[in-house]
C-alpha cells in the first residue's frame, strides 16, 4: 500500500478467496463485505491498464465456480462494475456477469440490465467485434426466458447486422447464428415480420452446402404462401424435425401469413372462396382464420357475410424493403397532393364567400 502496488495487493488478497467462499461458517453478508473491500482497490489504480488488470483478476476468481452462490457472485461483479471508471473495464465486467448468469442459471437476475444495452453502448463506445460479442451474449442469456424470446431474437438480428461488407471468411463466422435466427423466426408463433432477407450474413446461406434449405425456408415464410411450404415440407420433413419445427405449428403460421399476402395483393377485397383455397381449409373455417389474423393485428378488415368477401383496410408487410418504401412514398405523395387540393378548394371557397359578403354589404348601404 505504501508503494502503491495495488495490483499486487489485489492478487495477494484474492489468493484465499476460494477458501472464504467454500467456508460454510462465513455468511453471504460477510462474503460480500470482504469482496467489497477487495473490489474497492480498483479505485486506487493509477492507470486504466492497471485498473483493467485488477478487474480481470477479480473476475477470474469470482467466476471460477459459477454454480456455487451464483447470485452472490453476480452481485459482487455488479459492485465491481459500479466502482470502475474505465468504460472498457465496465464492458469487460458486464460480459463476465452475463456469462456467469448463464453458467450459474440465474439469468433472471441480469435480464433487467439487458434493457439498458443501448445506453451502455453509448457509454462504452465499442468496436464492431466487441459489439458482436455483446449482442450474441445477450441473445444467449435471453433465449431461455419465455418472456424475453422476442428480445433474444432482436439481439440476434443486431448481431447479424454488424456483418455488413465483410470478407467471405469473416462473414462465415455468422453462418450458424444466421441459421439459428431463421429457425427462431419460423418457430415463433407471434412473429410475422423481419428484415433477415436483406442481411448479407443471412444471404450467404442461399448457396451454402449446409444451410441452403434453411434459407429457402425463410424465403417461403417471407415471400410465398402455404402451398410452397407444403411442397417444401413433403421433401424436407426430416430437416424440419431436426431443427425442432412442428409441422402443425408451421401450417398455422403459414395460413396467417398467406392470408396477409392475400390482403396485400387482392385490392382490399378477398372472396371467401379464395381464402378457403389458399389456406386449404373448410368453408366454415374461413371466418375463424380471419378473426385470428385480426386478433394478431396482422390485418384490419370487415367481413361481408352476405357477399362472402373480406374487405381489408390495411395489413402488415412481412418484409419492408425497397419496394415497400417505394409504395409508401407513392402513397404519401398522393395524400400530400389530395390535402393540397382540399386546402386550395377551401381557400377558393373562402375568397368567394368573402366577396359575396362584401357585395351584400354595399347593397345594404
Automatic annotation (TrEMBL):
<dbReference type="InterPro" id="IPR000717">
    <property type="entry name" value="PCI_dom"/>
</dbReference>
<comment type="similarity">
    <text>Belongs to the eIF-3 subunit M family.</text>
</comment>
<feature type="domain" description="PCI">
    <location>
        <begin position="148"/>
        <end position="317"/>
    </location>
</feature>
<keyword id="KW-0396">Initiation factor</keyword>
<dbReference type="InterPro" id="IPR045237">
    <property type="entry name" value="COPS7/eIF3m"/>
</dbReference>
<dbReference type="GO" id="GO:0001732">
    <property type="term" value="P:formation of cytoplasmic translation initiation complex"/>
</dbReference>
<comment type="subunit">
    <text>Component of the eukaryotic translation initiation factor 3 (eIF-3) complex.</text>
</comment>
<dbReference type="GO" id="GO:0071541">
    <property type="term" value="C:eukaryotic translation initiation factor 3 complex, eIF3m"/>
</dbReference>
<comment type="function">
    <text>Component of the eukaryotic translation initiation factor 3 (eIF-3) complex, which is involved in protein synthesis of a specialized repertoire of mRNAs and, together with other initiation factors, stimulates binding of mRNA and methionyl-tRNAi to the 40S ribosome. The eIF-3 complex specifically targets and initiates translation of a subset of mRNAs involved in cell proliferation.</text>
</comment>
<protein>
    <recommendedName>
        <fullName>Eukaryotic translation initiation factor 3 subunit M</fullName>
    </recommendedName>
</protein>
<keyword id="KW-0648">Protein biosynthesis</keyword>
<dbReference type="Pfam" id="PF01399">
    <property type="entry name" value="PCI"/>
</dbReference>
<dbReference type="Pfam" id="PF18005">
    <property type="entry name" value="eIF3m_C_helix"/>
</dbReference>
<dbReference type="GO" id="GO:0016282">
    <property type="term" value="C:eukaryotic 43S preinitiation complex"/>
</dbReference>
<dbReference type="GO" id="GO:0033290">
    <property type="term" value="C:eukaryotic 48S preinitiation complex"/>
</dbReference>
<comment type="similarity">
    <text>Belongs to the CSN7/EIF3M family. CSN7 subfamily.</text>
</comment>
<dbReference type="InterPro" id="IPR040750">
    <property type="entry name" value="eIF3m_C_helix"/>
</dbReference>
<dbReference type="GO" id="GO:0003743">
    <property type="term" value="F:translation initiation factor activity"/>
</dbReference>
<dbReference type="InterPro" id="IPR027528">
    <property type="entry name" value="eIF3m"/>
</dbReference>
<keyword id="KW-0963">Cytoplasm</keyword>
Amino acid at each position: 500500500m505504501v508503494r502503491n502496488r495495488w495490483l499486487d495487493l489485489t492478487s495477494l488478497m484474492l489468493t484465499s478467496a476460494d477458501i472464504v467462499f467454500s467456508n460454510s461458517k462465513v455468511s453471504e453478508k460477510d462474503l460480500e463485505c470482504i469482496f467489497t473491500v477487495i473490489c474497492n482497490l480498483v479505485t486506487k489504480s493509477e492507470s486504466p491498464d492497471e485498473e483493467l488488470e485488477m478487474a480481470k483478476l477479480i473476475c477470474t476468481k469470482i467466476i471460477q465456480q459459477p454454480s456455487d452462490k451464483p447470485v452472490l457472485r453476480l452481485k459482487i461483479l455488479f459492485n465491481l462494475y459500479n466502482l470502475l471508471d474505465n468504460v472498457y473495464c465496465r464492458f469487460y465486467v458486464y460480459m463476465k456477469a452475463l456469462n456467469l448468469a448463464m453458467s450459474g442459471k440465474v439469468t433472471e437476475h441480469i435480464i433487467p440490465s439487458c434493457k439498458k444495452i443501448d445506453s451502455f453502448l453509448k457509454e462504452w463506445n465499442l468496436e464492431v467485434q466487441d459489439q458482436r460479442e455483446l449482442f450474441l451474449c445477450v441473445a444467449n442469456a435471453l433465449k431461455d426466458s419465455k418472456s424475453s424470446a422476442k428480445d433474444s431474437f432482436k439481439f440476434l438480428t443486431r448481431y447479424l447486422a454488424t456483418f455488413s461488407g465483410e470478407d467471405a471468411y469473416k462473414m462465415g463466422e455468422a453462418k450458424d447464428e444466421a441459421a439459428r435466427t431463421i429457425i427462431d423466426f419460423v418457430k415463433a408463433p407471434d412473429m410475422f415480420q423481419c428484415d433477415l432477407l436483406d442481411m448479407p450474413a443471412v444471404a450467404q446461406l442461399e448457396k451454402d452446402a449446409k444451410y441452403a434449405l434453411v434459407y429457402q425456408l425463410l424465403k417461403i415464410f417471407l415471400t410465398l404462401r402455404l402451398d410452397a411450404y407444403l411442397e417444401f415440407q413433403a421433401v424436407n420433413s426430416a430437416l424440419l424435425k431436426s431443427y425442432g419445427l412442428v409441422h402443425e405449428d408451421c401450417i398455422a403460421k403459414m395460413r396467417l401469413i398467406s392470408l396477409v399476402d392475400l390482403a396485400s395483393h387482392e385490392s382490399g377485397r378477398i372472396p371467401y372462396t379464395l381464402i378457403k383455397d389458399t389456406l386449404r381449409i373448410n368453408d366454415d373455417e374461413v371466418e375463424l382464420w380471419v378473426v385470428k389474423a385480426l386478433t394478431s393485428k396482422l390485418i384490419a378488415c370487415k367481413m361481408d357475410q352476405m357477399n362472402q368477401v373480406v374487405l381489408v383496410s390495411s395489413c402488415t408487410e412481412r418484409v419492408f424493403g425497397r419496394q415497400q418504401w417505394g409504395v409508401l412514398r407513392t402513397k404519401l405523395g398522393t395524400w400530400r397532393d389530395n390535402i393540397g387540393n382540399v386546402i386550395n378548394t377551401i381557400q377558393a371557397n373562402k375568397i368567394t364567400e368573402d366577396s359575396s359578403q362584401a357585395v351584400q354589404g354595399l347593397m345594404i348601404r
